[in-house]
Amino acid sequence: MITLSSKGFSLIEVLVSVFVLMLGVMTSMSLHLTALHSTQQSSMQTKAMHLAVELAESMRANLITISEQATTAQNNEDCERVTTPCVEQRLSSDEMSHWLQRVSLELPEGQARICQDAAPWDAGSGQLSWECAPAESTTQGPWVIKIGWHDKMDKHASAHATPKLALTVQPSQP
Predict the structure, then answer these.
(1) DSSP state, residue 66
(2) Where in the numbering of this chain does the Type IV pilin Tt1218-like domain appear (predicted)?
(3) CA quadruple 166, 69, 132, 66: dihedral, nearest 10
(4) Mind listing the pLDDT tens digit for each residue in 99-114?
(5) pLDDT (average), residues 74-79
(6) pTM
(7) Burial class (CB in 10 A: 0-12, 13-18, 19+), 114
(8) Can you spell out the DSSP letters for 68-124?
(9) How much of the chain exceeds pLDDT 90, in percent?
(10) For the chain, percent helix, then strand, then coil, each to nearest 5?
(11) How confident is the model at residue 5 (pLDDT cuts 50, 70, 90)?
(12) Residue 5 belongs to what H/E stretch?
């Protein structure tokens, strides 16, 4: 009778050990997927920061004259292909158009907005906002470069990407 009670015990031990091993493998896979997502997000943040810094340097060097209309309008004429020389305003518009194209190509559904914004952070929603809040004083608020893209893990899934980066710029004064 002693031998009958021990039958099947080794099978239970094997099943428990397989279950524990499976749990360990699944945890390892979960950690690996989280690391991949973090790496991807870090890469997107780095690309966005490089794009924003590039535009900020052009703004400070007065290579690009910023206006609210120039940040959204796409220029149909390319300064590199026209026979007449580019005037400063058209050259700035052309540079902005090329920069906006790079944002949309380098980031998944990338969008950008450059505006004077006194409060880029929306405390109510706890995230950056595309809207530009006017400055309370008579002087305009600082220029802010806002860049956003779609993320698979976005909590607020919508038709528009939420801004994920905002860089404040003080362009040089003429």
Answers:
(1) -
(2) 31-97
(3) 50
(4) 999 999 999 889 999 9
(5) 50
(6) 0.71
(7) buried
(8) TGGGTPPPSS-TTT-SSPPPHHHHHHHHHHHHHHHHHHHSTT-EEEEEE-S--EETT
(9) 38
(10) 45, 15, 40
(11) low
(12) helix 2-5
